[in-house]
Every structure is written in C-alpha cells, then in structure tokens.
Amino acid sequence: MFGHHFDKLKGSVLYMVCGFISWLPFHTLRIFLLRMLKAKISWKVGLYRNFEVRSPWKLSIGKGTIIGHNALLDARMGLTIGNNVNISNEVMIWTLHHDYNSTDFAQTGQPVIIEDYVWLCSRTVILPGVTIGKGAVVAAGAVVTRNVQPYTVVGGVPAKPIAKRNENLTYDLSDAVLPII
C-alpha cells in the first residue's frame, strides 16, 4: 500500500518539476533540465514556454525542431520527434489514453513517431500509435487517428488526406529559434 502512494507522490512531484521547467526563460536551460530527466533532446531545439511533457525519459527530439507554446508531449509510451519538425501552439500528442470499452476504464496506448520535416499546425491532436511520415502536414484543428503517409497534407476530424506537399525540403528550423521565449 505504501509503495502505491509513494509512486503517486513521486509522479506528482515529477509533473510539477516538468511544469516548472516549462516556464524557465531560456531554451538551453529547459533542454539541460529535461536531459537531466533522461530526455534525448538536441541542443538545437526550440522549446517555447508552457509546454507539458509527461515521462521525459521516454522522449526523443531531433535537431532543428520547434515545440510551440502550450504543446502537450505525452511520452508515457514513447514519443520520437525527428529533425526540423514544427509543432505549433496548443498541439496535443497522446501516447496513452483509456479504453472506453474496458469494464475498469483501463489505460491503453502505443508510441507515437513524428518523422523529419513534419508540420503539426495549431491545435492538432495526435492519438496513440500514430506515425506521421516525413514531410507531412497536419492542418489546424485536425485529429489524427491513423498513420499519415510521407509528404501528405491531412485535415479534418478524423484527419483525411487533402493535398500533397513538396518533397524537396531542405530547411533548418534551428535558425528560427528565438533565444528567450
């Protein structure tokens, strides 16, 4: 019984620590502290304030990636984010949720993979087990329930293909990171 309560307390403290980290004034300081919690994050990443991360030790973020304000990164089942990914403001990426058919409302989930050059527009929701292919774009407000093919633009609820994207992407978003936001 004591072990269960201790685990809940430990989880609550970790949640508060990650929340505190998200309000610090410098990207490098945020990255340093998340690395102390075993996250695998390139130094050339923009982590804008008030993001939320769950289970940072299961999080990997590649170089040149930008994480917008109020983004939720649920890494409890594993979250891999590639290079030069733009995760806009208020995006939610979930790896764990509840099974609505479970008699005891059990949790279920799978890792999420966001490949290189992906753009997740504001207020998109990515559900557990999804892979977003290289260069794909998820339109604002879309809910992604299935894998997205590379260089495909999807939108809607649930997200469906609406266009194709240029496949000759060479940009480096690390040049766009503002130092103190």
Q: N- to C-terminal separation?
A: 43 Å
State the helical fraction: 10-25%
The main sheet orders its strands as 2-5-8-13-16-18-19
Rounded Rg: 16 Å
Q: In sequence order, what are the helices and strands, one letter per element?
A: HHEEEEEEEEEEEEEEEEEEE
What attributes characterize this protein structure?
transferase, membrane, 19 strands, 181 residues, alpha/beta, Hexapep, Hexapeptide_acetyltransf, globular, UDP N-Acetylglucosamine Acyltransferase, domain 1
What would you say this structure looks like, in words?
It is built from two helices and 19 strands. With 181 residues, it is α/β, with parallel strands linked by helices. The protein has one domain: Hexapeptide repeat proteins (UDP N-Acetylglucosamine Acyltransferase, domain 1), CATH 2.160.10. It has helices spanning 2-21, 27-36, and strands spanning 40-41, 46-47, 52-54, 59-61, 66-67, 72-74, 79-81, 86-87, 92-93, 96-98, 107-109, 112-114, 119-120, 125-126, 131-132, 137-138, 143-144, 152-155, 160-164. This is Acetyltransferase-like isoleucine patch superfamily enzyme. The chain crosses the membrane at residues 12-33. Keywords: Membrane, Transferase, Transmembrane, Transmembrane helix. Belongs to the transferase hexapeptide repeat family.
